[in-house]
Known about the structure:
Layout: H1 5-83, H2 90-171, H3 176-187, E1 194-198, E2 201-202, H4 211-219, E3 232-234, H5 236-239
Parallel strand pairs: 1-3
Antiparallel strand pairs: 1-2
Helix pairs in contact: 1-2
Bound molecules: zinc ion (ZN).
Zinc ion binds next to loops.
Amino acid sequence: MALTKEALQALVALQQKDKHLDAIQYEIDAVPPRIDALKADLENEKRHMNEAKARILELEKKKKTKELDVAAQDEAARKHSGQLNDLKSNDAYKAMQAEIEKEKAKAGDIETEILQIMEDIDAAKAVEKAATAEFKKTEEFSKKDLEKLEAELSHAKGRFETAKVDRDATEAAVAPSELKVYNHIRSRGKPDAVVPVINGHCGSCQINLTPGLILEVAKLKNLVTCDSCQRILYKPELLVPATAQ
Ligand SMILES: [Zn+2]
């Protein structure tokens, strides 16, 4: 099937519409990574908050253990004090007294440790409060941002569907043989499958085209492709409507 001016015009129009679709698809593809990033941020804040909560629990557990240690030392000192009067020898009495002093001193040391832990708990609570506030803030903001992104995505998808209907109508005007060449070029990572001849150069790869090839393009009889980049060539001035010349 011979090429006609109208057929080439249709191919150029199809490419414009495909580029428009590509641009919308690009917008659509950009949204999920942004949603993922928002969710990752929120997860991160949540992790900080949970770590801070866990830190408090850990310190409170440590405090409890120390309190039991103090109670055990106090209990031992009390028990030994009760046994003092039963001791017969002076040496044994003195040894027991020394033991009781050691137990009391130990209890005092642990009390000091408990005071430090209580300070640590206060500090950990301040960290937890800040982390929770940060999480709530991020949660609120990301909820709004997520809604915005979902709306953006839905809007872009709607535009894509409309543009696709328009594009498919244009495709119907292109001859199957030309469409096959066009689709083949695009499938090889060249979205600009149809390129103008500009000042004797290929509009895409810029190679200098031979006069013979340019003449072939001007004839509008067959699809002519660039020897270098294999894109379909056309002379834009031949496709401009007569009234616009
Ligand atoms: Zn080229």
